[in-house]
Structure formats: structure tokens, C-alpha cells
């Protein structure tokens, strides 16, 4: 099919992909109202694709009985909401909300424990389909990515807008979940556009309209402006992006430092970041939220050991090592404590991660009760540089060999085949798992700074 030459203001139908010859409110072929029209429709090629309520959508796909019910994917009464379907969201449930508050807002919700292995498998299917469209796919998380389809029109015989519409229709038909698309000329506005009309959205923000569109939006639309910084801007009388557009760059820099630069450019729709397919991993971590608050070493240390083994398994699976060990704790009143220690050499061994975490947590065992514990490593590098022989600690090599033997047994017989004395008999919170049985996020890729 040759690239369309119809008026972009008439656009096409998202359901049957028919090009429209006029401004009728419904598709002239199938009658669908889901039409895409925009003056810059066939000139734009940078997109953000985000699956709709991903975890919940996968669960509903696999259990049709859940189709019309509010579904929350998350971790028990003391955990938080990982994803809520749109029915639950209508009732006030939001991602990262404490589970008890979510159930207060939506008492009829069906709560499902996350199945990260399944979600990762579906996420890989979607990503593979993205990579068939263009080599420039930049994953942001398991279910979303930026795509640059510039220069692919000859390959597909269609402009990017139609390629994207065909893609999300195929995802819905073949994988059984839905996704939303944001199409624009820069990453910032592509991400903004994908959030505008969820679920099953397809929104376009062109370059000519960007300043006017942004002017009326709240400052929280700008990436990096969270509640705390929004409160700072509020104190300075700044509530909308339009107010930022009227300010000088130097003034914003003096007031807010490097963040002022971001405010200045993004408020004007200026974002020159490119879509890059190869992104360095930033950290590998694992964490768990307890059913009841814990304070003593007898309770926390076994969990720390199990989480260290999870992190180690992820590092080994990804052929990575990390030099900085990071401990994370969340108190009863939701205050977060983070502590870190830099090692002399990168590691991927559970024993080194655990021993470092043990040193860090020892200083926090002051009677404070914790609802969450996490351990991770950052400053990642190739595993070839990990864990060189230690001339001071002569037992280090023996422990490393023992860990290798344990890994081999778990790989053959399952994650529960061998346990250390730290975790034996401590229940599921203190049990190590195989990498493919893991429940948590593997590798985090936070947005890079501008």
C-alpha cells in the first residue's frame, strides 16, 4: 500500500485503517467514531507507546470472568497497588496506593498477586513487535517504550501514524491487551500525548500547537515536577506552564538551578533528546513489604538474605555486577531510609551483597519498626570484572565456590532445593527463588536527565 496522500485533516480510521475523504464524524467504511485527524499527522514520527493497565489487562485476558470486575494487582493488605484496572480507577484506586486505602476506596475489588514472570513474557512479546517496526526502540519499563519511526516509510509503505495504528490493533488482536499511543515531534510531548486519552488512546501533539497546548497545563505535567517541587513553585506563584513560558531562562536558573533549565525548555515544547535503543542499566534491586511491621534482627536478617540472593540471581542472569550496595527501609509512617556502601570491586555474589547489607542495617536496628525492606546494587558493569581474588579474606574464594554450587543445585532442582541457615524455616518471605520465579522488577531504567 502506497503512502497516503489524503488530507491529514481528514486522517484515517483506527479500526479499519481506511483513509477518510471528508470531515464526517464516523468512518465512511465501517462507521467507527475512532478517527485520527491532525494537520501534522503524516509528518510526525516520534512515538510513546504505553500498554493500558498492563498487569491487570493481562490478568483479565487470562481470566475472562474478570472482564467487568474491578481488579487490583498488588501485594497483600500491607503492600501497595502495582496496577489497577480502569474500573477500579474510577472508584479512586491509583498505582502505588497502600493496599488498605485501595480496598477502602473499592471494597469489591479482586486483588491478584503479581505474576512477574508472566508479565515479563507478555512484555517481551510486545517489545519484539515494536522492534519489527524500527530498530530505534527505547524501553522505559516492561510495558512502555519510545519509538522513532523516522525513515521507515519506504520499509512499511505507510507513514508512521498508520504504522502505529496498525501495530496497536495487532497487539489487541494477537496478544489480547490494549495500548495507547502518543505521536509527536519530541519525547516529552509523545509521552504527554500517550496519557491524554487512555485506554486505547491515539493522541497527536504537533509542533505548531505545542506552546498553546502547554500554556494551560499544570506545571506537574513537566517530568520531574512532583508534589514537593510543585509546592515550591506554588509558593512562588507558579501554577501553570504558561507562566513558565513568560519567564526568562536566567531567572529560572537562578531560582531552581539545573531544574530551571528543564522548566524553561520543556515549557516551550523544546526537547532534543533522541530515542536510543541501547540504554545502560542503572540498578538491580529487590524489595518486599511485610504483612506486619518488623523491628528486630531475627526477623529482618533472613529477609535481607533472601533479597540479596534474588539480586544476585538477577545480576548473574543479566551478566552484570555492581559496585555500590544500597539498603532501603520504609518506616511505619512511610518514611524512607536509604543507606549505601561502595565496594572496592564490583560484585554479583549474594554473600557480598548480604554481608554489606548486614553492615548497613545494623545501624538501623534501633527499635524502629519497618514495613518494607529492600537491597540493591548500582554502578553496574560487566560481570567479567566482578569479585577478584581477595588476598585479605582467604575464605572469600571458598564462599564464592560454595555459592556457585548452590546456584547449580537450584538451577537443576528449583529455588527451594538449598537454603542457608539464615533463611531455613523462615517461611516464604525468607526463601530464595530461582530467577524465573522472581516477583519483583529486574532492572530499573529511570528517565535520563536532559
Automatic annotation (TrEMBL):
Entry's EC annotation: 2.7.7.7
UniProt cofactor(s): Mg(2+)
Stretch list, region Disordered: 420-450
Active-site residues, record numbering mapped to chain: 144
Residue ranges with Basic and acidic residues bias: 441-450
Cited HAMAP family: DNApol_IV (MF_01113)
Assembly mode: Monomer.
Family the UniProt entry places it in: Belongs to the DNA polymerase type-Y family.
Name this protein carries in UniProt: DNA polymerase IV
Organism: Aquamicrobium soli
